[in-house]
């Protein structure tokens, strides 16, 4: 089973699918799932944009990609997604329409993840709920924790909610391991006073092989977590730089076989640079 991993697409939900399509064509390697570390820019109604997203959308329509391409049927988008036949599994970020996502989550409480788009290709994880990714006899155990943490006790919907904290507590008490922990925020071990305590609790009490996260604005980095077990991976945001190209570490590939995971592949910029700010929608 082969996974592609992205973070912080900010409305460019179609871009990971196009990059995966390019990767498959040029390497001959099939991708089975896409994982995405939050800040999808899931705003079906542009009147509900938060201030930061509204500011960026005035300069760049890409911020409204969910509204433009994933709420109403677009034949070209449908054709691409049907041809790829790959699901994108996300966690919530802090730049989403959480009222919209809450309604969908409340209608799908029996499921570990729920679809948010008209094509049923983009799914959001219920925070703290363990789930399985399957391909034939292979199984990957995954849990996501969405939104961000806050040391000041704020409770608006950008921040992890009480019901999600309860799910994380259940996860801490469960048996078994996680192959992948997918989050938007990082853990709160930084001395700079940010991050999410719930993430640190999972990393300290549940055996986790890989932790992927975004949000912080830092470049790609892979390092051993302080728990001595987990590989902690900061995924670069899927944002075009001043020259119109994507940063190193914005697209990662990991492969799982019966004997375990392969080494993490940082997809070369020779590939990602083929889709620029100026041509990726063509």
Automatic annotation (TrEMBL):
SUPFAM superfamilies: Metallo-dependent phosphatases (SSF56300). Gene3D superfamilies: 3.60.21.10. One of its GO terms (molecular function) is hydrolase activity. InterPro entries: Calcineurin-like_PHP (IPR004843), Metallo-depent_PP-like (IPR029052). Residues 1-217 form the Calcineurin-like phosphoesterase domain. It holds the Pfam family Metallophos. This is Serine/threonine protein phosphatase.
């Amino acid at each position: 089973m082969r996974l592609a991993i992205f973070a912080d697409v900010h409305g460019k939900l179609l871009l990971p699918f196009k990059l995966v399509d390019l990767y498959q064509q040029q390497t001959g390697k099939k991708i089975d799932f896409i994982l995405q570390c939050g800040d999808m820019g899931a705003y079906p109604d542009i009147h509900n944009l938060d201030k930061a997203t509204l500011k960026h959308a005035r300069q760049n329509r890409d911020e409204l990609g969910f509204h433009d391409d994933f709420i109403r049927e677009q034949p070209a988008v449908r054709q691409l997604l049907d041809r790829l036949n790959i699901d994108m599994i996300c966690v919530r970020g802090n730049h989403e329409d959480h009222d919209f996502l809450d309604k969908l989550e409340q209608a799908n409480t029996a499921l570990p993840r729920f679809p948010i788009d008209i094509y049923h290709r983009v799914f959001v994880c219920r925070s703290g709920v363990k789930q399985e990714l399957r391909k034939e006899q292979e199984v990957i155990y995954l849990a996501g924790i969405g939104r961000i943490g806050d040391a000041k006790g704020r409770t608006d919907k950008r921040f992890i909610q009480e019901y999600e904290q309860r799910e994380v507590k259940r996860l801490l008490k469960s048996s078994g391991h996680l192959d992948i922990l997918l989050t938007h925020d990082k853990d709160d071990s930084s001395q700079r006073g940010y991050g999410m305590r719930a993430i640190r609790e999972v990393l300290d009490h549940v055996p986790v092989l890989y932790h992927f996260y975004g949000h912080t604005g830092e470049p790609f980095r892979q390092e051993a977590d302080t728990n001595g077990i987990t590989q902690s991976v900061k995924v670069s945001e899927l944002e075009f730089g001043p020259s119109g190209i994507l940063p190193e570490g914005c697209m990662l590939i990991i492969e799982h076989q019966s004997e375990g995971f392969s080494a993490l592949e940082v997809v070369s910029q020779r590939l990602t640079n083929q889709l620029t700010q100026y041509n990726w929608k063509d």
